[in-house]
Design brief:
Blueprint: H1 2-35, H2 40-70, H3 77-89, H4 95-137
Length: 164
């Protein structure tokens, strides 16, 4: 059975590796854009492209899971390692696929770290923007909150600073 599933696995891993490389490139571009002058439209386009690549990688995971299930193996690094060992024992050359799997695992880890970094940058920029808007509006985030007695709290500087 592994002789039939191995070519599928080989193609799946090659496609997943390409998608992960594209995702890493997008994340790098996003990181650069976040460091420079903010271009919200470019960030939105990058986010849309990232969603598409992530969907491709999720599809890869499902398909790989189906291949591994045919061999009664679990999805994950351990299952793929056992699958490759089984293929090697059947006389199939697995060096290329093993390298692709290792590359995919490393690239996925790098993508995860870069995505977390970009997310933190976006969150920081969002907080800065929200605070700037609060200053311009003269509204404090505490002005809309309730105290323990159920009455809204008034802050010292909760009046409008600028009126246009």
């Amino acid at each position: 059975m592994i002789e039939k599933t191995y070519p599928i696995t080989e193609k799946l891993l090659a496609n997943a590796l390409k998608a992960a490389q594209s995702l890493f490139e997008l994340l790098t571009i996003e990181s650069d854009k976040l460091k420079q002058k903010i271009d919200p439209e470019a960030i939105a386009n990058i986010a849309a492209n990232k969603r598409e690549l992530v969907a491709q990688l999720e599809q890869f995971t499902k398909q790989l899971g189906q291949v591994l299930a045919t061999e009664q193996l679990s999805v994950g690094n351990e299952g793929v390692t056992k699958y490759l060992a089984k293929a090697g024992a059947a006389g199939i050359r697995v060096e290329g696929v093993r390298g692709s799997w290792a590359g995919l695992a490393k690239l996925s880890e790098n993508c995860r770290a870069l995505n977390e970094q970009n997310g933190a940058s976006i969150a920081l920029l969002s907080r800065h923007t929200q605070r700037s808007l609060q200053i311009l509006r003269g509204k404090s985030p505490l002005a809309a909150t309730y105290g323990p007695d159920g009455v809204t709290r008034n802050e010292l500087f909760s009046h409008t600073l600028i009126s246009v």
